[in-house]
Structure formats: structure tokens, C-alpha cells
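During the reporting period the student researcher (J.K.) took over the structure-prediction task from the postdoctoral fellow and processed the backlog of single-chain submissions. One of the processed entries is reproduced below for the supervisory committee.
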Amino acid sequence: MTLIELEKKLDVKFPKRFHEIYETGAMEWIEVGNEKFNENRDFYLNSPKAFMMLNCDCEFCFFEDIPEHIRELNELLEWRKEDNNERLDEKYMPIPFAMNGGGDYYCFLYEKGADEPKVIVYAHDCYDNPDIIGNDFDEFLYVMMMSCVAYAVDEDDFSELDGEQWENNLGYLTDEYRNKIRSGDRYKIADTYWSLDFEEAEIFS
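J.K. obtained the following C-alpha cells:
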């Protein structure tokens, strides 16, 4: 499923930066779907241009699977309404596009009147308000690249951070965020990542 087909199916527009990265071909592994990915797993895992095929706290969903993830998220929202009597404010629409290591959804949070969606993480096993991981997709990518550095520090293995795939993914960041990663001390970046305190998204009534 192509990005255009997905957007048409969902009747949404993904962020501008998402489109720019997609147009480079870096999201081919996300586009081809689970079956073709598994048939060519080594190729996609080792492709220098592969988007976010890194050791970080994010795994992007195949485009073809996103409608099913939306169904699952809507089920979680329905349970929340039944258990806590909390309803998603009508001006918001979360669209899951990735997951973290704990199985929680990263979602684009569309808000009526906003130009670009924020990125939130919606927990699958609690009723806390979701955290805002990025005020836009650019900031979200920066946080995820910070998580790569933090994991490398924890594992004392920096080989991934010196490869072509890493450099290409740095290229998907804005100049400001890319310079922060490249010029920063890796141990300080890791400390900053683990100490991040995210704002909550007040999206329920």
C-alpha cells in the first residue's frame, strides 16, 4: 500500500516531513507490507537508506496494517469510555503509525484547525493521559534519534552510530536537530533522553 493510498483510505494527510522522507524511497520497507518484507528481510534490514531501521524506541507500522491498528485503538478508546467515563474530545483524531517497545501506539494527533499533527504515545494498558512526544513530526524524529544514542550508551555498543544507515537517518532531521546530535556528547544525549519529562495531552472530556 502506498502512502497516497493510505491517506485516501483514512481521509487524512500525513505530515510534510513524513512525505519528504517517503519520496526518497526510504520507507519502501514500510510500504511493501509484512509478507514482502519477510521475503526480503535481510535486504531491508541492511539497506543504507532504510528509514528508522535502527535500535531505538520506535517500530513503524506497515501501511497496510494501520487501518487495523486504528480499529484496535478505537477499541481502547471505547473501553476508556466505559470504564472511566472519559470520551475523546471531538476536535481530536489520533492515527497510530508506529509502536514503542512496550506495545504502545505512537499516533499523529490531528486537531481541528491545526496545520500539522502532534505526536502522542497512547498506552495500551493504562488510562493516563497520553504524552506528547513531539509537537510535530520533526521533534518526534529527534527524540527517537536521541533514543538510539541512549540505547547505544546503555549497551556500550556504538557501531550503529558510525554506519551509513545512521548517517542517512540523521539526514532526515532538520538542521537544528541534526547538529544537536552530531555535536553533542553521546553520554550527555543519553542522560537528556532518559530525563525527558513529556507534557500530557489533555484530549479527553
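The committee noted the following: The mean pLDDT is 94.
J.K. will present the remaining backlog at the next meeting.
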